[in-house]
Amino acid sequence: MMGGIFQVFCSFFSGILTALAIPNEIFHFGSPIFGMAALIPLYFAAKSAKSYKNAAGIFALDALATHIFSSFWLANFKNFAIFTLGASALGTACIEAMAGCLFFAPFGKPAEILQNKNRPQKISFNFKFLKLSCEFSSKEFRVFWFASVRVVYEWAKSTGFLAYPWGTLSMSAFCAKPLMQSADIFGTYGITFLFSFIAATLAESMISFGEKNRGKKLAGFQKCALVLLALFFLYGAFRLCQKRPAVKTLNAVLVQQNRDPWALRIDDEPIRISMELSQKGIDEFSKRGKKADIVVWSEAVLRHTFPESYIRYTVRPEEESLISFISRTKIPFLIGGSYTLDDAKDRTANAALMFDRNGFFRGFYGKTHLVPFAEVIPLIDFPIVKKMMHRVVGISNGWTPGEEFVLFDLEISSKEKRPFPSFNVIDMATALPNQEKPTRARIATPICFEDAFPDICGPFHSMGAEVFLNITDDSWSKTASAEYQHFVVAAFRAIEYRTPLVRSTNSGFTAVVDSSGNIVQSAPLFEEAYMCAEVPISQWRETVYSRYTNWFVHLIMIFVAATLFFVARENFLQSKNSR
Known about the structure:
By secondary structure, the chain is an alpha/beta fold. The protein is built from 17 helices and 14 strands.
């Protein structure tokens, strides 16, 4: 039996391997090889667990090691390190500790019958024409159960108010483009299941290799792992070979100012820098014989709240005001700022502000999924909580979630190429005979880490969004790994919804991702830069994932719940018979 010290070593080592698998300072886009092997030590440790407490500790240590070694940059979030790193590490460890208990359930005290050689080694359930049975002692079940528990764990940590979809196995698959393509069916959880299943299979194969009575033929779980890997790869290769011609193109100037807004009380300098970079991008498009359709600045560039501060930006900066610059370029601008939702109650949203080609403020989208304990503070309306937060982190107020999903229909210069006959709708109120209608692109503007969540991007897609245009400020992290991790997490949305993702960031990673997850264009990290992005827009389409969302997770949960029911039922029957 494996000793406690070796269990600790395996759990800790598994966490380190997972941290190396996802984007980090060494492998900027992660390593799928490490991803498939990362959980091998954890499986060794979990298989030898002797109690629920032991199993919970094994899994919790894995979570702590993964989180600290991969998300260490959370400590740079202003004075919030106690929450962003400390509380998130503790919360992640607690969630994975529960996953450890879940893994142990079929093999522990609720199924003590398995430890008695005189009792059945399987649990069965008969109901009319339905007969189910499962040998919990089999390697096939243990491997499948391990992968299922991992899926439930990653779903639990990526969902809800405290959601943090970082440190997941799927993040390691970015460099394995064929494997990524399954996200349009399973979301990221299919990749998590595949990599977990492979890791458990490799671990069991290592154990079997040392057994004297090992067979020469492949075991059932080994065949299943090979089949799964082949199916994922073949599907991905098929999807990558499919051509999705662009029906129109969005010409966007993406501005990366590389200035920390937290260090500046006045936003004149970042505005001037952004205007200079914007002009360079606009001029470059002109040299190509094209016109920019939109200019995008990153999150939180404007420090003064709209709409009341609109007048301020008609005169600031002094050299040339922001509004004058926008109206001179005759191009719409999307800029990160803030918007007052309720002045009387001091409710303000972290917002994406849209200005038309004449410089008029036309609307905003308020960030709906806020960073817990950093952007939104639970119970902050209570004086004691407000006082404590002011004392601990120096801030006693937060953002207010936006109240609705907002899309922007943007007029673009590209001529739409329809794969089917064109049609004409005569508007009796406004249209003129034979008037050519302008081509439009419907864009969604998720803010910051909202591009990491399907429950944000999904509604945008269902409303007809043709481009996800994300504005982000991760400059506070001061690390390349933080920038690349955010990017890789977000890149899966492009595949899940087969919709291009455009990211305009303060310091990185500014990039354009096509509907297959490929990087079309990108800018270097932590540099002043602009990018003239020609974003290909294909015909809007529905995917399996966009229609049924997390159906695979729900299926796994049904399997897990059914297994626990069988365990509890058999335990009850055995206890009843022993009386």
